[in-house]
Amino acid sequence: MTDFKKSVVYEIYPKSFYDSDGDGLGDIRGVTEKLDYIKELGADYIWLTPFFVSPQNDNGYDVEDYYHIDPRYGTMEEFEELAAAARERGIGLMLDMVFNHTSSRHEWFRKALAGDEKYKNFYIFKKGKGPGIPPTNWESKFGGSAWEYVEAFDEYYLHLFDVSQPDLNWDNPQVREEIQKIVRFWMEKGVKGFRFDVVNLISKGEFADDEEGDGRRFYTDGPNIHQYLKELNEGSFGMDPEIVTVGEMSSTSLENCYRYGGEGENELSMVFSFHHLKVDFVGNEKWVMVPYDFRKLKEIIFQWQTKMEEHRAWNAVFWCNHDQPRVVSRFGDEGPYWKESAKMLATAIHGLRGTPYIFQGEELGMTNAGFRSISQYRDVESLNHYQILQEKGLSSDNALQILGIHSRDNARTPMQWNDGRQAGFTEGEPWIEVNPNYRYINAQTELRDEDSIFYYYRRLIALRKQYDVIAYGDICPAAEEDAQVFAYKRTWKDEELLVICNFYGWPVSWKSGESLKGYEILLGNYGESSLEENGAMLKPYESLMLYRKRGE
Ligand code: TEU
């Protein structure tokens, strides 16, 4: 059995991964063809973002039919081939289940709109507060009101995301049963894990106006959330102890995560939280342009690390996914220290207590898209906010600058396989433009260079397998007051691991505060280091991973 604490997960956004048939969209066969690449990297699981039948308004997070594969991605037979080929290589597949909402084209919603009471009760329909006034003032995460008016009923339905993504009513036991059935169906296909999309939003509380915010406090980590997760666990994936699960927890709290990802809670194996990625927001507002707050980044990571450990709960640790800008562009350097900063950021994450997730292309040091025109964007959230920002009075240039930093499309440009046409992603025209830096940032170049970012990630994955302290060690923050260095220690039995990262493009003197005698360098991102007994003069973006056995 693969131990999830010793494992690393590789996230694939199939639409942008590899196109096997030249239609410009990545597909399932494309994933199968590239399995050896992932095997070479050493990842244990592949998380595939949704490939179910969908109108693709939100790239598959709007599911029309949970039991069938969107023909644009392939067939069930091709999926089974992928599962078998992955199994042969010792790689497990993790599927992405979107159960907070369906697509408005789902049969359930169509029946609801046709007036079928059974299915109306699968969703959340409410009367408005008055003519033209929705039931509450909640905002959709993609902009605008979270309620859509349906004239035939003189009622509104709730959509926390796009208007084409109506929220399911989890308080209805029939909904919960249908969902268990879907999970069991995919378990029978040999799937080894599940990621549950925004699963902490499924239990809605009171439907009241939010005088302070956008409404999230009424439906986030809601009143029955733990009960619903335990029930889902018991009725589906919990029946197979080998299955690994991760919940995407939007705007969650530590207290709830102790339970979502807690040992013996029978909810999920681990949780994604996002507070550490809001350090370049202003409050909850993402569509702004401010430098990131390094001290806050450290503080949040350390708080989650130590508190989750204290409560015997498990984190997924990550910088990147299909919703986040590329981390080298965000907290590293796209310029002269591109390689060093990409490796440093990898070290910072992979040494933490938790299961690391790598998003496709992160292991190549892929950067933000660099789009300059709105016509290059595809993401519904970006397109909506481009309008909203201008309605607020920003110029279109300014709005584009902000999109350039925060848009989800930054992560969604095609995987850069080689320096050939369209980066080797497709023989056709890609659905979203390739980043022109594919000429020097691509897998082929990385695989030819022993000192590449790719091989550095491979080494980090291998070290996790080799050293128990990396997988299981307790966490102890270090250099907490330092304005430039992120450092921490891990301890396990007689093993000690020390991770030291300079987050800036200039040198810094770091004092260890204890003797470093006996430590060996497991990994560093420079050929040589100036490590001494009491610290080091760290070079720009330098990182070190040190190891020693006590008593040696
Ligand atoms: O994302 C949930 C989510 O709320 C964010 O990551 C979101 O993209 C961001 O807050 C907007 O600023 C999940 C999926 O990962 C995302 O791709 C889907 O669009 C979303 O759920 C809806 O299913």
TrEMBL record:
Protein name (record): Alpha,alpha-phosphotrehalase
Highest taxon above the source species: Bacteria
Annotated EC: 3.2.1.93
Domain Glycosyl hydrolase family 13 catalytic: 11-412
One of the Pfam families matching this protein, by short name: SusG_C
Gene3D superfamilies membership: Glycosidases, Golgi alpha-mannosidase II, Oligo-1,6-glucosidase, Domain 2
Cited NCBIfam families: PRK10933.1, trehalose_treC
SUPFAM superfamilies in the cross-refs: (Trans)glycosidases, Glycosyl hydrolase domain
Family label: Belongs to the glycosyl hydrolase 13 family.
InterPro entries: GH, GH13_cat_dom, Glyco_hydro_b, O16G_dom_2, SusG-like_C, Trehalose_TreC
Record GO biological process: trehalose catabolic process
Keywords: Glycosidase, Hydrolase
Keyword Hydrolase: yes
GO terms for cellular component: cytoplasm
GO molecular function: alpha,alpha-phosphotrehalase activity; alpha-amylase activity
